Amino acid sequence: MGERIGILGGTFDPVHVGHLVAAVNARHDLGLDWVVMMVANVPWQKTGLRTVSPAEDRLAMVEAAVEGVPGVEASRLEIDRGGPSYTADTVSEMAGLHPSAELFVIVGWDVVAELGTWERIDEVRDVATLVVVNRPGNQPPDGLRRRGWRLEEVTVPNLEISSTDLRGRAATGRPLEYLVPAPVIRVIRERGLYSVGG
């Protein structure tokens, strides 16, 4: 039997403890061999809405966040591919790199409503199991099964952490401690990310 690989994609601008909680809980609950935190090159859903930090800076933050976390790693696959980052392309490439693996695409509950806007969503559904990271008390996403998805659900604590808020905190010098892993805070400060006027 092949490996069970989770793919948790995102802009990670910045990566925070909520992302790591999702990754480690999905790995534990589903018995995944490893979870790849896939850093988007150009997050097409955010294009034109706000300035996104350079991909190499976001990758450096994720690499710092996952260092020493068993079974979780950062990936630059989408960065190296270039252009807009589409999950369909990533799942196809991962399937080619790991032909015997079972792939799991990990998304937050808030993303479920947006699945219909994804490019070539049928290709994702055909290749991967969808893992919805849910919060206690939320209804399970049963409608997805009726649309042909293989579906798993992972419940995590209700952590209200917003990357938008974190960027604002960094820009105004407010504390990031315990919201963002300490190694990530070091990367943010060393690279001058999110500074006012930066």
Q: How is this structure best summarized?
A:
This protein is an alpha/beta fold. α2 (55-66) runs antiparallel to α8 (182-191).
What does this entry look like structurally?
- With 198 residues, this protein is of the alpha/beta class.
- The mean pLDDT is 93.
- It has helices spanning 17-30, 55-66, 77-81, 87-97, 121-127, 143-146, 163-172, 182-191, and strands at residues 4-10, 34-39, 72-75, 102-108, 128-134, 151-155.
- Helix 2 runs antiparallel to helix 8 and helix 4 runs parallel beside helix 5 (121-127).
- The chain has one domain: HUPs (Rossmann fold).
List the helices and strands and how they pair.
Blueprint lengths: L3 E7 L6 H14 L3 E6 L15 H12 L5 E4 L1 H5 L5 H11 L4 E7 L12 H7 E7 L8 H4 L4 E5 L7 H10 L9 H10 L7
Helix pairs in contact: 2-8, 4-5
User: Percent range for helical residues?
Assistant: 25-40%
The first-level CATH class is given as Alpha Beta
What's the domain count?
Answer: 1
Strand content: 15-25%
Can you tell me the CATH topology?
Rossmann fold
Provide the gyration radius in Å: 16 Å
Q: How many beta strands in the DSSP annotation?
A: 6
Descriptive keywords:
single chain, 198 residues, alpha/beta, Rossmann fold, six-stranded parallel beta sheet, 8 helices, 37% helix, 18% strand, globular
